[in-house]
Amino acid sequence: MQEGGPIKVGVLGATGTVGQRFITLLSAHPWFILHALGASPRSANKPYTTAVNWKQTTRIPHVARDMVVKECKPEHFKECAVVFSGLDADVAGEIEGAFRAADLAVFSNAKNFRRDPNVPLIVPLVNPSHYAMISQQQVQHSPPLKKGFIVTNANCSTTGCVIPLAALEKSFGPIESLLVTTMQAISGAGYPGISSMDILDNVVPYISGEEEKMEWEMLKILGGVATSDEGVKSFDMHARNPLRVSASCNRVPVIDGHTECVSIRFAKRPPPSPQQVREALANFTTDAQTLGCPSAPRHTISVHEEKDRPQPRLDRYYQDGAGVSVGRIRQCQVLDIKFVVLANNVSIGAATSSIINAELAILKGIITS
Amino acid sequence: MQEGGPIKVGVLGATGTVGQRFITLLSAHPWFILHALGASPRSANKPYTTAVNWKQTTRIPHVARDMVVKECKPEHFKECAVVFSGLDADVAGEIEGAFRAADLAVFSNAKNFRRDPNVPLIVPLVNPSHYAMISQQQVQHSPPLKKGFIVTNANCSTTGCVIPLAALEKSFGPIESLLVTTMQAISGAGYPGISSMDILDNVVPYISGEEEKMEWEMLKILGGVATSDEGVKSFDMHARNPLRVSASCNRVPVIDGHTECVSIRFAKRPPPSPQQVREALANFTTDAQTLGCPSAPRHTISVHEEKDRPQPRLDRYYQDGAGVSVGRIRQCQVLDIKFVVLANNVSIGAATSSIINAELAILKGIITS
Amino acid sequence: MQEGGPIKVGVLGATGTVGQRFITLLSAHPWFILHALGASPRSANKPYTTAVNWKQTTRIPHVARDMVVKECKPEHFKECAVVFSGLDADVAGEIEGAFRAADLAVFSNAKNFRRDPNVPLIVPLVNPSHYAMISQQQVQHSPPLKKGFIVTNANCSTTGCVIPLAALEKSFGPIESLLVTTMQAISGAGYPGISSMDILDNVVPYISGEEEKMEWEMLKILGGVATSDEGVKSFDMHARNPLRVSASCNRVPVIDGHTECVSIRFAKRPPPSPQQVREALANFTTDAQTLGCPSAPRHTISVHEEKDRPQPRLDRYYQDGAGVSVGRIRQCQVLDIKFVVLANNVSIGAATSSIINAELAILKGIITS
Amino acid sequence: MQEGGPIKVGVLGATGTVGQRFITLLSAHPWFILHALGASPRSANKPYTTAVNWKQTTRIPHVARDMVVKECKPEHFKECAVVFSGLDADVAGEIEGAFRAADLAVFSNAKNFRRDPNVPLIVPLVNPSHYAMISQQQVQHSPPLKKGFIVTNANCSTTGCVIPLAALEKSFGPIESLLVTTMQAISGAGYPGISSMDILDNVVPYISGEEEKMEWEMLKILGGVATSDEGVKSFDMHARNPLRVSASCNRVPVIDGHTECVSIRFAKRPPPSPQQVREALANFTTDAQTLGCPSAPRHTISVHEEKDRPQPRLDRYYQDGAGVSVGRIRQCQVLDIKFVVLANNVSIGAATSSIINAELAILKGIITS
Question: The Semialdehyde dehydrogenase NAD-binding domain covers which part of the protein (chains A, B, C, D) (predicted)?
């Protein structure tokens, strides 16, 4: 599809956990070619192999081994049509802002811009329609931008949950209430992240800021884009059909894969049956797939009939981590329906989402080489 | 308190996980003295040390080491004023029934008699008032019993949840809806129980029969005992204020201690505030304590102010496992209040409950030496 | 290479842990095609999907899903040029013997025939020369066999250790003493195998029969095949240069990948330096590779320079589990050299070894379609 | 025994892992009373409850809750007859030196002074005779000290191993060679210590500096104190019977308890049999016990006959963690005898050793109130 040859991309936060995942995925990508790696001044000017404490189960890709890591400054990335950011929140705001100001297209995993009213928060299997906000983001920037913008993806625990919810709203209309209890993998906290003393033989029933993120992000993602009479666009936060979300977030001794127990109440009465829910989930297709994003899962939601699935260790590799797994779909005694979702927090929950978002931006013509 | 000297007690299923716990606790009990141990025919006639595959972190108590294990037949236990049963469900029904028929007082951990309309399901920190059913159980037995009866305790995941709920209903009146997601320890499945291949780096979002047990047992425990015009007693299953319970049960790689995320809606409007809930839980006292049960916790519920507690590894030993810990009490966006409960499934969730139940029966005069 | 089209193969013990691994690997094999699956009478006559409790992280291969499982009787496998056995030791002896008697070529993972004086115990990256014993095995069988034989592979903990040892003996001559302490993964015990109650937050310093197996099997594998004056072949058990082996075997809470701390003393004085050892290991090539076995690792031993590698979670996928990783090569204060080996017990330690053994047998002309 | 009432003690590094353990043990000590707590300037002047991130399974002892933490300066500890140090190595050298210079008696867990030729490295169940060095340490100090001194205890992995070795040397004379492979608990690395990403489902075959420590410390501890013709004392490093030690150190996913596989060769020919070794270990008594140290284990070494013990999860609480457990005593094919040792690294491997060392110093009259 790329007549002009491979598209040059950069990675910010290249030595971190999400950065390593970006590099692994991009090294085998059909469209993209790694062009620049950015990290902290401590790592700058070192070959990537020296700078990184590599923690993946595959070797460092050859393309990256000898690349010299640079500081996260726009001048080192100006040839990159796409910049992926795995930066930590404490530096992401400033750096990503500077990159956008330098007219670069930034796909961020950090939380800093997620609540920005002009920045879409896109889960690529759910709301690529929110790309409609990009032109306003560019125009309202001072000075206005031609190519630069920021797109964020969601918190890893939000992503897993929101995909089946989108499928259900598509089939059955608005969801009214949602109770979700998560059991989240340690990799979601980065490296070194969680001390082993805190999680071996243990559960930690708290993740800082996580519940607030889930409760807020779902509204932005599942909501629409409204246009005022003056033509100003805004995210409607699911306002036409208010959605109440209550999240309880836990850390468990699992390496990869967030498991979530979800109970929902539909606006529609009577609500769909478990069997109808099962079918709606199994048949869910996404724009990412139909438009032809190479990193999109061929099948989005794996619906398990086995009574004890999905399980993170067995199911987190479904569709190379780009799909989600749902099981135990049954009636809830308090709301309508309950089920278990499993999503790979380091794939669809992080780097894979950013990459599909970039693929979508290219296919939609928002990024042009 | 025991003028007549120590009370002889027996343990059925003495070589199993719960049986080992009974023996550990009873060997240091101020009232009880181990008199007879029962196990399967395979173990019978062996010294306990030979018969058991001991898996506790303390040594086999001296009193038990050389006791000869017997078959689970009433004639071997006729001197026992109390018989504790840690039998598996596949044999518990028949054996416990035979023991009762032989006029023995049986305190069971098995599920077999929990749904029997004449058998109380007693969590000793919640519903000792259900002992009121014993006389009817004895009279309706054929032939009627003088001393024999069966009391069961609850499933380990039910026990942890129902204690704070009882405290809240005592302070604020009926609860109307309850959503609970459990993260249960592997010891709840006995030994060998869960294969390590199934739980290392994993969560299993299913425990056979567990959700049904929780949803049903809570109603029996939190409900009252009704008396018909004909004087017939029955468990009212919380019927005067119907309670809807929805449970999602998960197994996690934790050795001991069930963690549960609970959301509730009160009948009372407006509902109590988080701070009122905190105080009600912290101040909860039980009959077991005021009557002077030696195994009752001195303080029932530990209310944590730390934002990341309770945690199973750190909090499961609270009150030697006889108390429960509650934390993260906060508002729920969908129901009223949510919080996290931790209970030690092998202590208050199993053997300790049975022992306090027996202590209560003695203090109430239901068992007489 | 296969002019006659794909080679039909069967799997015995198809529903077990090793059997599932065989099926996964064989479903994508360039030469072999799954033709028959055998399991216990309990599973027989069921579709594989129904019979198996699938525990792999990939889905059941399509080729196997609807195959009807058969009893492990030779008549169901007579079209199979190769039969792979993942049978448990309690039944493997009888069944594998019957298959050989029916003139079938059996590649076994079980221990039953490993000590048979006519059965080679082949680690494919070490001693394919032991195929020289096959003709004698066939001739001495009663009645003599035309095509049938049994080849076993080694115990999983032996396999990892013996590969670097073979490399070192090839470069520096005989090893005289060997002390090895293993830290073995739970998957080595099959399913359900180790109870989670035994291994979470624990080490079990004992594996039944394992130390004896390691101490004996290494001698058979690293030794040669001697021929008497009468032309009778026998395994010499490293007798010309006696090798003393002392093994201490431990189970640790790791899912896949056996880590072994090895100390050795060479016969050669002075012994090679750590750097010479490093080079010898890194440069080791095998017949399996040069002959063109499709499942042989392209590179046999990965020598790590990082001071804290190999680690099972990060390195067990090296060469899809067909290679081994060695690190921390340094002087031993008591013997000569010490190092750490990591081998994937379910790949090169089990199914992959059998498959390469079969590939070798085909390339050497021992099996002809 | 203390006529003058309780002995005032201080704890340096009071908020750290070892400090928390000191406080837990000292709060229930029959002789000692907590008088001063020292920590970093960041924690100074805060109540202990506020300063500490408490990670023990018991609550913060009442005696410590409201104590105000001080900076680690001698003037705050001058009333303390004993100062226990759980300081990290990066600050321990300077602070402990300053405390000694202020004529305070310091019992250190840090490595800084272990190699000092005048500082004894005392494992209290092994070499209290090394207290003979204290007078020289005081005299050679500039200016000479009246009461101040430093005693260190050993690295946690050394301690477990050296106790059975001392028992064996006592019975059978010098050991000549020792190969030890450790499987060490995560708590040995402090908090936060090991990242969960590094150890879940994993083994790390490297602990920085650990092998060198074990190989060197054993010589100092098991060696004697020599006196030159000029009356100068020195540690002889086991020189009369040179001892070669080779250690391989691994981190495993275990919370507490270091497991070690040990092989030894005695100087004595023929060597003792496994049964003789078993008896020598079981009968080992120590000065700490006979002198009446209240924290000494009543029985030093638990010899296991079960074939699969000791195990860290089950045996680390033996004698409240003050004793060690040995099992699997058998012949080694390369050296003479091999066995498995388990020691609780946070008890006898750290705080408990320091406390018994202080008790010994009091009983020997080296510390006087």
Answer: 8-134
Q: Which of B29, B35, B238, B258 is catalytic?
A: B258
- B7-154+351-363 and B156-344 share one fold: no
Q: Can you tell me the distance from the alpha carbon of B199 to that of D201, in angstroms, rounded to the nearest whole number?
A: 11
**B156-344 homologous superfamily:** Dihydrodipicolinate Reductase; domain 2 (3.30.360.10)
Q: How far is A196 from chain D (nearest CA, A)?
A: 4
Instruction: Return d(Cα B344, Cα A40) in angstroms, integer.
Output: 46
Decide if B250 and A332 are in contact by the 8 Å CB cutoff: no
D326 contact residues in C (CB cutoff 8 A):
none
Give yes or no for a contact between B183 and A251, defined as CB atoms under 8 angstroms apart: no
In this structure, the strands spanning B258-266 and B175-184 are antiparallel
Give the residue carrying structure tokens 């009882």. B166
Cβ contact B55–C199 (<8 Å): no
CATH of domain A156-345: 3.30.360.10
Tokens 């030496």 label which residue?
B369
* CB count in 10 Å sphere of residue A309: 20
Give B310's contacts in chain D (Cβ within 8 Å).
Answer: none
Pairwise CA distance, residues C264 & D334, whole Å: 10
Least CB-CB distance to B57: which of D56, D57, D317?
Answer: D317
Question: Which residues in chain C are closer than 8 Å to D253, comparing Cβ atoms?
Answer: 201, 252-254
State which CATH number among 3.40.50.720, 1.20.1730.10, 3.60.15.10, 1.10.1530.10 fits the domain covering A7-154+351-363: 3.40.50.720
Q: Which chains touch D (3 or more CB pairs under 8 A)?
A: A, B, C
- Residue B80 annotated among the catalytic residues of the structure: no
- Residues of D involved in catalysis: 156, 258
Mean pLDDT of the region C57-76: 96
Here the ipTM equals 0.95
**pLDDT bucket at D4, cuts 50 / 70 / 90:** low
H-helix or E-strand containing B95?
helix B89-101
Residues of chain A contacting residue C200, judged by C-beta atoms under 8 Å apart: 201
Query: Can you name the CATH fold of D7-155+351-363?
Result: Rossmann fold (3.40.50)
Q: How many CB pairs under 8 A join C and D?
A: 129
Collect all residues of chain C within an 8 Å Cβ-Cβ radius of residue D340. 205, 248
pLDDT digits (tens, 9 = 90+) for B312-362: 999 999 999 999 999 999 999 999 999 999 999 999 999 999 999 999 999
Question: Which of A49, A32, A35, A37 minimizes the C-alpha distance to A12?
Answer: A37
Residue of chain B whose alpha carbon sits nearest to that of C53: B198
Taking CA atoms, what residue in C is nearest to D333?
C246
When pLDDT is averaged across residues C291-309 and rounded to a whole number, the result is 96
Task: Give dist(CA B140, CA B368) in Å, integer.
Answer: 20
Instruction: Check A314 against C57: CB less than 8 A apart.
Output: yes
CA of C85 to nearest chain A CA: how many angstroms apart?
25
C119 within 8 A of C137, measured Cβ to Cβ: yes
* Domain extent listing, chain B: 7-154+351-363, 156-344
Alpha carbon of residue A68 to chain centroid: 28
Point out the residue among B183, B244, B253 whose CB comes nearest to the CB of A333: B244
- Is there a contact between D255 and A55 if contact means CB atoms under 8 Å apart? no
Annotation says C156 is catalytic: yes
* Residue B252: closest C-alpha in chain A: A252
pLDDT by 10s per residue, chain B, length 369? 455 679 999 999 999 999 999 999 999 999 999 999 999 999 999 999 999 999 999 999 999 999 999 999 999 999 999 999 999 999 999 999 999 999 999 999 999 999 999 999 999 999 999 999 999 999 999 999 999 999 999 999 999 999 999 999 999 999 999 999 999 999 999 999 999 999 999 999 999 999 999 999 999 999 999 999 999 999 999 999 999 999 999 999 999 999 999 999 999 999 999 999 999 999 999 999 999 999 999 999 999 999 999 999 999 999 999 999 999 999 999 999 999 999 999 999 999 999 999 999 999 999 986
